[in-house]
Amino acid sequence: MTLDEAVEPVVIAVTDAPAPITGILDMALVDSRWRLRKLAREASLATFEAEGYGPGDFTWRVPAGMACRAAARRGSDELWAGFIAADNDGRLAFTVPVSAVTPLQIEIGACKP
Fold this sequence. Notes:
This protein has a single domain, classed as Immunoglobulin-like (Sandwich). Helices cover 0% and strands 55% of the residues. The strands form two sheets. The protein has a five-stranded antiparallel β-sheet, with no helix packed on it. Strands 1-4-7 form a three-stranded antiparallel β-sheet, with no helix packed on it.
């Protein structure tokens, strides 16, 4: 597990019952192939910095059926964008198909239930 060095203090909660997810403010990372940091969530937008090798595979826990627009940027250049949708179990899985050897900014927003 890699914790976000940009966040202090670190709080780790261990439970058998996951917290309810009602929207983008509550979305929770399930897994990621790339390293993430600087996660910020606002009412309609989640952003984070990501870097790594190979394809950028991400899975988040969100409300079932939620659909969003995701984009990868480096500076002002949009390198990839796509529409993504959660399955019936609330798994929002997508792949960013661009190189992130140099960190990228990922945005998830414009979500609809």
